Amino acid sequence: VAGNYFHREIETTRSDAGTGAILLGDGAGNFSTVPVAETGLAAYGDVRDLALIQNAEGSFVFVANNSDAMQVFRLAK
Question: Is 47 exposed, middle or buried (0-12, 13-18, 19+ CB in 10 A)?
């Protein structure tokens, strides 16, 4: 999960305290957060979309930021 919201009304400050998080499910509807130190994910931007791509080289999270460059994170095992 990730998301901040930079573009607000003039009287409302932007919401930008999010850094992103990886949630692991147990298959029974319960989730636990994996610490950033373990995942390497730090999505500080004005995040609009995420995609998880897994291949033989590992797991990658692509982060699309509004009016900014895309970020790619390789997740630690």
Answer: buried
pTM for the structure as a whole: 0.67
Q: What is the 3-state secondary structure (H, E, C) of the chain?
A: CCCCECCCCCCCCCECCCCCCEEEECCCCCEEEECHHHHCCCCCCCEEEEEEEEECCEEEEEEEECCCCCEEEECCC
Cα 60 to Cα 71: distance, rounded to the nearest angstrom: 10
Residue 77 CA to residue 59 CA, distance in Å, equals 8
Per-residue pLDDT reduced to its tens digit, 38-52: 877 888 778 889 999
Q: How many CA atoms lie within 13 A of 71 on its CB side?
A: 23
